[in-house]
Write a structure and sequence with these properties.
Length: about 650
């Protein structure tokens, strides 16, 4: 047998006492999988399909779930009962027990929901589960009915109540002195396997660095204006111009342009085809020429070349905006700053960067636009081609993020092979000193990139978060995406809006009284599960395993990436001690005119009110990458302007929006 043996049958319960019983069908469960030796776990999900004529979108989702090799490491747990129970006893009576590896303490549950209409409890694990590991979902007699009597097994339903099977022995021991009432066994999926195999596969594609034909390096002292000619429309092509304030960037001497080859795993629907997680990844036929630019510091080049910080921009941003705002502080520490456009960003492929020198001559450079008219409306939006979230498709950002990480890993390979920006025969970027700094979306895919790319020595991740489904569900900025998604499934339950009634961490058990909330919860859970192979939440634990230095930065009250999502990412990495929180609430007490949303605090350098905060955060980040030490960004200037320290290492990660 090529797959490992899976125990799914255990001791049958005897007759119940006539009280409340646990219904069969706990979720997740290995009974909803089949053997598949093409998977690293040896299993593949096998959920029953709904009526595909009546529910085609749901049917498509489940077909995609049935290609995965296990359940989400952040699975939504479901336990049904035959009659009402005391909801306050659910947290004590539901546990998760790890079955593979060394014995560990049972894992409690959090975000518990009780649905009195169906006598069903829902919950999330209190911490992220390990990928590719077997667990038992266990219900004990700590769950009580309203009169205080312990719940009982359902007659004839398998429960884990004997030591005759090794797995059950571990379960019984883990929850003793409580009695096991019901249990299900399940395996978590291989979340990071695809990108780990992609990195190996890239060894078969030479990065093929090329300088821009003709003049490839432009000194800032020669330039009078830099304009981004954005292709915002297709058939016919339409453009809008945006002047870039490069003259305000201090410490940068010149900008250099180049490109490299990177395979594209995305199909025409902007999704990545599923293959078995144990199978090798083949390089696709499509190879993209990815454009990049480097901002070179105004200081003497070290013998091995400038240390380099690869920068990742935010959602709807591009490689010339956010990364440039960081360039001055990074250049001050001697770093060259390198950036590419993320998939679907930078507007259309005809986008150009127009550089006008002081003599009035203009040179147009390929802007590297990667946006497409995905919806066929003739427009190319700032992120079009990355987010795939419609009534018919729930890929979300996951496949887009995987492709971005592939492109960044190939960029690392290009730098490692040697990059000569100006054609003088010497390496300009140090192949052994590569770092990463990402903002917002750049921190989201930057978490994944930093986790799977060992040649990145350290990272700064600013206002990232996970899961992506939770960012859409909880945040204000991207709430409309959730509304449109649910409208397409006819699931809006608040007129033209939705209320999922999902509690935050550590809140009391939520007694569900919101019509339609369960269906909305289930759809967001499905979205998170589907995106697990391309979601930063499931990659963050690798950062701790690799002991990679990471500085996490986010802002209290962020409305774009809400604090619970940022905290979840840090918690999964186990890195609260290297996390700094910007207290925007304190800043607004001193300056009420500040924008309510602090999401862009690190790159908002174009206002005298926000510049001191941005520079403080940037200098902390640049100093960390240069020295490995985390400095205190609070300064006398900040205290004078705002009357308080604005940055802190949180004693507890914030869990409110």
């Amino acid at each position: 047998m090529c797959c490992r043996l899976i125990f799914t049958a255990v001791l049958l319960a005897g007759a119940a006492s006539g009280g409340v019983t646990v219904r069969a069908g706990l979720f997740p469960s290995e009974s909803l999988t089949i053997e598949d030796c093409a998977q690293k776990t040896g299993r593949r999900v096998n959920l029953p399909l709904p009526d595909c004529e009546a529910r085609p979108a749901d049917c498509q989702d489940i077909r995609r779930l049935n290609q995965l090799d296990g359940f989400s490491p952040n699975a939504r747990l479901r336990v049904g009962f035959s009659a009402p129970v005391n909801p306050e006893t659910l947290k004590d009576g539901i546990r998760l027990v790890a079955l593979d590896g060394a014995p560990a303490d049972p894992i409690p549950v959090n975000q518990v929901i009780w649905d009195p209409a169906t006598n069903t409890a829902f919950a999330k694990p209190d911490r992220l589960l390990d990928q590719q590991r077997r667990y038992a979902l266990v219900v004990t007699d700590a769950v009580r009915d309203p009169a205080g009597a312990a719940v009982e097994p359902e007659p004839g339903v398998p429960v884990c109540g004997t030591e005759t099977l090794p797995d059950c022995g571990r379960v019984v021991e883990a929850v003793t002195p409580r009695r096991v009432v019901a249990a299900s066994l399940f395996t978590t999926l291989s979340a990071t396997a695809w990108l780990e195999r992609a990195r190996i596969a890239l060894g078969g594609v030479a990065p093929g660095f090329e300088r821009r034909a003709g003049k490839s390096v432009f000194s800032f002292s020669e330039l009078s204006a830099v304009t981004l000619r954005m292709q915002v429309g297709a058939n016919p092509s339409q453009f809008e111009d945006f002047s870039l304030p490069f003259s305000l960037i201090s410490g940068v001497d010149r900008i250099a342009f180049g490109s490299y080859r990177s395979p594209s795993f995305l199909d025409q629907g902007q999704t990545i085809a599923a293959i078995g997680t144990a199978e090798p990844l083949e390089i696709p036929a499509t190879i993209n020429q990815v454009q990049f630019h480097a901002l070179v510091p105004a200081r003497e080049k070290p013998a091995a070349g400038y240390p380099v910080v690869i920068t990742g921009h935010g959602f709807t941003d591009n490689r010339f905006a956010g990364p440039s705002a960081l360039a001055g502080s990074l250049a001050g520490q001697g770093f060259a700053v390198v950036a590419i456009n993320a998939v679907g960003h930078g507007y259309g492929p005809e986008t150009k960067l127009a550089l006008r020198d002081k003599s009035g001559n203009t040179t147009e450079v390929d802007g590297g636009g990667r946006g497409i008219d995905f919806n066929g409306d003739g427009k190319i939006e700032a992120q079009e081609g990355c987010l795939v979230l419609t009534a018919q498709a729930t890929a979300g950002l996951g496949d887009c993020l995987r492709q971005i990480v592939v492109d960044l890993m190939q960029l690392v390979r290009a730098i490692r092979a040697g990059v000569d920006l100006d054609g003088d025969g010497q390496t300009d970027l140090d192949p052994d000193r590569i770092y990463y700094a990402g903002i917002s979306l750049g921190a989201i895919y930057g978490t994944m990139f930093s986790a799977v790319e060992p040649d990145v020595r350290a990272a700064v991740l600013n206002v990232g978060g996970g899961s992506v489904a939770d960012i859409v569900r909880l945040g204000r900025t991207y709430h409309s995406y959730g509304v449109d998604f649910l409208r397409g499934r006819a699931l809006l339950n608040r007129g033209d809006d939705f209320d999922d009634a999902w509690p935050l961490r550590d809140q009391p058990v939520k007694i569900l009284d919101t019509a339609g909330a369960v269906e909305i919860q289930e759809l967001f859970e499905r979205l998170e599960w589907l995106q697990a192979q391309g979601d930063p939440l499931f990659f963050a634990p690798l950062l701790k395993t690799a002991a990679k230095p990471v500085l996490w930065l986010f802002a209290k009250g962020d409305q774009s990436v809400p604090n619970p999502a940022s905290s979840a990412l840090v918690r999964a990495a186990g890195m609260r001690e290297t996390t700094w929180l910007y207290r925007h609430d304190l800043a607004r007490q001193a300056l009420p005119s500040l924008d309510e949303n602090p999401h862009t605090y690190m790159v908002n350098v174009f206002s005298l009110q926000t510049l001191p905060v941005a520079l403080a955060a940037q200098q902390q980040a640049a100093g960390f990458l240069a020295t490995g030490e985390i400095g205190n960004p609070n300064s006398q200037v900040l205290r004078f302007l705002f009357g308080n320290n604005l940055f802190e290492v949180p004693e507890a990660l914030p869990e409110s929006r």
